[in-house]
Amino acid sequence: MPVSIRQIHPVFVGEVSGVDLTAAVSRQDVAAIEAGMDKYAVLVFRDQALSDAQQMQFTRNFGAIENARGGNVTRDEDRRLVSGMNDVSNLGKDGQPLARDSRQRLFNLGNLLWHSDSSFRPVPAKYSLLSARVVNPKGGDTEFADMRAAYDALDADSKAEIEHLVCEHSLMYSRGSLGFVDYSDEEKQLFKPVRQRLVRTHPVSGRKSLYLSSHAGSILGKPTPEARILLNDLKEHATQPRFVYVHKWKPHDLVMWDNRQTMHRGRRYDENQPRDVRRTTVAGDAPTVAQAAE
Ligand SMILES: [Fe+2]
């Protein structure tokens, strides 16, 4: 049975059937999935009981796996998962939920803010793939917003105002908005702001999109409060319910999204219960704009 994709939201998101991701996926099916990503920006696969090795193997069909260094404050010796897997769970290395005051947990709460993965890197991520191994009985949805539809819905003056703007993104901006402000010198170096265009053009479809993320904290040439008001207005516009898909997780769901065309956020859940969701990330292939000279 060939891959088929059914759109499940008025503006984006496809549900994929006819493919088993635990086995090697044919080149033809990979091409159909990539074309689906270009069109729908988010794809949902049900009943895919993946191992970490299988998830990484499927991910590599779309490009190199991103190096996770500099993406969080978890120390190497505290990592639960192998290199190449991003841990989006609430679990420590011992398999138990992290303590309430755990620095790792408090930092990871930033995932509940609207963002695009790795927008804080000079070359930001292409795709993310999130596999649900253990889900919560209540809460813990992931929401996605279509940044192409949000861009299309702006009026002509707003489009002209933002066309050439360049933002600075850093994990210290998103976490700072939560009051998480203490970093070691090494972390400050790792989390140094990078530049990103505010309007991106998709390399295949040619569609423009808003490149927003809670990691964005300033706009070149604008006073900070003015920049943040504009970014906040754009975020409110872009996350109206008509642009948002809410994913309610079932065990063995895999959801794959294009970070160049969407934002997402997690929702709160009972953190006394284990939640084991694991992400792989496909690296991007170019910066969105030249970085500042060192
Ligand atoms: Fe994320």
Write the layout of secondary structure elements.
Blueprint: E1 4-7, E2 14-17, H1 27-40, E3 42-45, H2 52-59, E4 86-87, H3 103-108, E5 127-134, E6 142-146, H4 147-152, H5 156-162, E7 166-169, H6 171-176, H7 185-190, E8 194-197, E9 199-201, E10 208-210, E11 216-219, H8 224-238, E12 244-247, E13 254-258, E14 262-266, E15 276-281
Parallel strand pairs: 2-3
Antiparallel strand pairs: 1-2, 3-13, 4-15, 5-13, 5-15, 6-12, 6-14, 7-8, 7-11, 9-10
Can you give the helix content as a percent range? 10-25%
What is the rounded distance between the termini?
A: 53 Å
Work out the number of β strands: 15
Radius of gyration, CA atoms, in whole angstroms: 18 Å
* List of distinct ligands in this structure: fe (ii) ion
Total helical segments: 8
Question: Per DSSP, what share of the residues sits in E-state strands of 2 or more residues?
Answer: 15-25%
Spatial order of the strands forming the largest sheet: 1-2-3-13-5-15-4
Q: Which spans have pLDDT < 50 for at least 5 consecutive residues?
A: none
Mean pLDDT: 96
The secondary-structure class comes to alpha+beta
The largest pleated sheet is described as:
7 strands, mixed
- The outline comes out as globular
Give me the strand/helix succession. EEHEHEHEEHHEHHEEEEHEEEE
Descriptive report:
The protein is an alpha+beta fold. It has eight helices and 15 strands. It is globular. The structure holds fe (ii) ion. Fe (ii) ion is lined by residues 111, 115, 117, 264.
Entry keywords:
seven-stranded mixed sheet; binds fe (ii) ion; alpha+beta
